[in-house]
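in:
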C-alpha cells in the first residue's frame, strides 16, 4: 500500500487551480458536479402513493440515500486527496480513473480490480435505472409535469 502522502497544507490550504478560471468560478463549477448527484432526490415523492406508509417511510428513504452518499463519499475523497501525488499524470492519462486508483493504492492489480468493480456495479445498475426512469416519466406525465404529458401518461392495457 501507499507509504507517501500529500501534506494536509497542500490538500486543505494551497490552491492548485490549473483550469485557468478564477477561483470562485472554478469552485462553483466543481461543487456543481457534486451537487448533481442529489438533483433527483425529490423524484420518489411523485410515486409515493405506491409505498406502504409513505408518511413515515418516504422521508426515511430520502434521508438514508443522502446519508449513504455522505458516509461513502467523504472517506473516499479524503483518502484520494491525501494519496494522489501527481495531478498532471491523472489529467493527462488516457484513463484518468485507473491512474488515480493506481496512485492511491500503489498497485496495478488493485487499481484494475477497483475499476472492474465499478464497471460491474454500473452495468448492474443500468436496467433498474431505466425502469425507474420509465416510472418517473409516467408519474411526472400523469401530474402534467412534462411536455407531451398526454402521450407519456398513457399505459398500454396489454402490459
Amino acid at each position: 500500500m501507499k507509504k507517501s502522502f500529500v501534506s494536509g497544507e497542500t490538500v486543505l490550504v494551497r490552491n492548485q487551480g490549473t483550469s485557468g478560471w478564477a477561483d470562485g468560478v472554478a469552485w462553483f463549477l466543481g461543487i456543481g458536479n457534486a451537487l448533481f448527484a442529489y438533483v433527483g432526490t425529490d423524484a420518489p415523492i411523485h410515486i409515493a402513493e405506491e409505498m406502504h406508509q409513505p408518511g413515515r417511510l418516504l422521508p426515511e428513504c430520502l434521508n438514508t440515500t443522502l446519508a449513504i452518499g455522505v458516509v461513502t463519499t467523504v472517506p473516499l475523497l479524503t483518502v484520494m486527496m491525501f494519496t494522489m501525488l501527481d495531478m498532471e499524470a491523472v489529467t493527462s492519462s488516457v484513463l484518468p480513473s485507473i491512474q488515480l486508483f493506481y496512485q492511491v493504492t500503489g498497485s496495478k492489480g488493485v487499481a484494475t480490480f477497483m475499476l472492474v468493480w465499478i464497471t460491474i456495479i454500473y452495468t448492474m445498475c443500468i436496467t433498474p435505472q431505466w425502469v425507474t426512469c420509465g416510472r418517473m416519466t409516467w408519474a411526472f406525465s400523469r401530474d402534467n409535469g412534462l411536455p407531451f404529458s398526454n402521450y407519456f401518461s398513457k399505459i398500454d392495457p396489454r402490459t
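note: Residues 95-159 form one domain.
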